[in-house]
Write a structure and sequence with these properties.
Keywords: Oxidoreductase. This protein is an alpha/beta fold. It has 13 helices and 13 strands.
Length: 334
């Protein structure tokens, strides 16, 4: 098949590399406002370069991958749907929830599949955890712990446009908690602080946060995030039930150092970047998209899924700012 890529920044170029290695993908068509980025992709992957999204959609593509800036996501999703071309779009659907809801309304009833990029759904550990929960291996769940710690903050310009740590970073934890447990979040309580880069505080954001989520069956989920984790990129989950407990990310590249006498675990070189931690997950995610394009599977992460994670992020942001518990229904009504 012929896949178009809109946006060739860090993640777009990474997707181009991944797609070029998939058996199902015969050719790539790319576009980016910066001609140099498109030219580099063309030279590296043999891609065809066009000068606009309109030209890309007119180039006979079977599916499109939207990796452009967040502000462009709604228009590009809708352009793909109008053209009848399946869409993969990196999260979020839009910069704000109100815009995201408008996108959902605009595409409802249209027979064009849309997949939103939440790559943890395709990581082998998280897939195994979901299967264990669904099979009842843990019994009734009572506690979930989910962690995302970045080795260093992104640039100041990125922070200023990110929508805040809950929408930019924690939202991956929120999505994977929903997906692994099969439950919905009903209420949150969030705290945060600034112990590092001044530009994060100046942007009105926190660099380290914690959130308590109450799920609709009474399970408690604890989410921990930080922009500062010098030892490496740390993504983990623990799921505790009355019968058993399991963990995702408990492997030799875990960025933790044990101080227990005689313990050598973890013994590997720590993960240092999300592309290192989730290389295989990204490959599985885009392989899934080629199956969506081929019509052999439904979207594994819909706009509705992405918006549910977004509501949790908005509730945590409000909770942080107002120092109180916030229900998901409260933010839906705002």
């Amino acid at each position: 098949m012929r896949i178009g890529i809109l946006g060739l920044g860090r993640i777009g170029a990474f997707h181009a590399e991944t797609l070029s290695g998939l058996d199902a993908v015969e050719s790539l068509v790319v576009t980016d406002p910066f001609a140099g980025a498109a030219k580099a992709a063309a030279e590296r992957f043999g891609a065809e370069v066009v000068d606009s999204p309109e030209a890309l959609l007119a180039a006979g593509v079977d599916g499109i991958v939207v990796a452009a800036a967040t502000d462009a996501h709604p228009a590009l999703i809708l352009a793909g749907v109008e053209a009848g071309v399946p869409v993969f779009c990196e999260k979020p659907v839009a910069k704000t929830m109100s815009e995201g809801v408008e996108v959902l309304k605009a595409v409802q009833g249209r027979d064009v599949p849309i997949q939103i990029g939440y790559n943890r759904r395709f990581d082998a550990g998280f897939v195994a955890a979901r299967a264990a929960v669904q099979a009842g291996e843990l019994g009734t769940l009572h506690t979930v712990r989910s962690t995302t710690l970045d080795p260093a903050p992104p640039p100041a310009a990125y922070i200023a446009a990110s929508g805040g740590i809950f929408r930019d970073c924690s939202v991956h934890d929120f999505d994977i908690i929903r997906w692994v447990t099969g439950r919905e979040v009903t209420e949150v309580y969030a705290v945060g602080g600034n112990r590092g880069a001044d530009f994060i505080k100046e942007a009105g954001d926190a660099d380290t946060t914690g959130a308590i989520l109450t799920l609709d069956d009474g399970t408690i989920a604890v989410v921990s995030n930080s922009r500062h984790n010098a030892r490496g990129y740390d993504v983990r989950m623990e799921i505790h039930g009355f019968t058993d407990s399991i963990a995702v990310g408990l492997e030799d590249k875990l960025p933790l150092r044990s101080v227990e006498p005689g313990v050598t675990f973890p013994a590997g070189t720590p993960h240092d970047f999300f592309m290192d931690r989730f290389t295989e997950a990204y490959r599985a995610e885009l392989t899934a998209f080629t199956e969506v394009v081929a019509g052999t599977r439904p979207s594994p992460c819909t706009i509705e899924d992405a918006l549910e994670a977004g509501w949790i992020a908005d509730a945590c942001t409000l909770s942080l700012h107002e120092h109180r518990p916030v229900t998901i229904e409260e933010v839906r009504a705002l």
